[in-house]
Specification:
Strand order of the largest sheet: 1-2
Oligomer: single chain
Number of strands: 2
Distance between the termini: 6 Å
Length: 126
C-alpha cells in the first residue's frame, strides 16, 4: 500500500510505501526503510539537495510569521533585531525542519518519479 502524501504519514515522518518511521532519532535517518527496505536516497549522492529547498520553503515563512508576532510585542525594536531574535528562536527547531524537509522531499520525489521497488509484485493491484 502506498502512503504517498498521506497527511498522517507525513506528520509522523513515515515511508511513502509502508508508513514506517524514516528517522531513528532527531539527527539520524535510516538509509533504508526498516519496514519495507525502500532505499530513501535511491543510492544517488546529493539526492537530498532538493530537501534543502524544501527546508528553506518551510523555515522562511515560519521566521517571517515569528517576526510579525514579535513586532506586536516589541514595536520599538528594529527589523534587523526582530529577524535576528526570530532566527535565534528557530535554532532549536532545526532538527524538526530537517526531518520534515527530507520527508516531504522523499514523498515528492516518489510522486514525480515513482520507483518500482524490487520486492513489489508487478502483477498485484495497489
Amino acid at each position: 500500500m502506498r502512503y504517498l502524501f498521506d497527511l498522517p504519514t507525513l506528520l509522523r515522518r513515515g515511508c511513502p510505501f509502508c508508513g514506517h518511521r524514516i528517522f531513528a532519532g532527531p539527527l539520524s535517518m535510516h538509509e533504508n526503510c526498516p519496514g519495507c527496505g525502500h532505499d530513501f536516497d535511491r543510492g544517488q549522492p546529493g539526492y537530498f539537495t532538493g530537501a534543502m529547498y524544501v527546508s528553506y520553503a518551510l523555515a522562511v515563512p515560519f521566521i517571517t510569521l515569528l517576526t510579525g508576532i514579535e513586532y506586536l510585542f516589541l514595536r520599538d525594536w528594529s527589523l534587523f533585531r526582530l529577524v535576528l531574535l526570530a532566527w535565534v528562536l528557530c535554532v532549536p527547531l532545526i532538527p524538526w525542519f530537517w526531518q520534515y524537509s527530507r520527508t516531504l522531499w522523499i514523498h515528492f520525489d516518489q510522486w514525480v518519479d515513482p520507483v518500482d521497488r524490487p520486492d513489489s509484485d508487478p502483477h498485484s493491484t495497489p
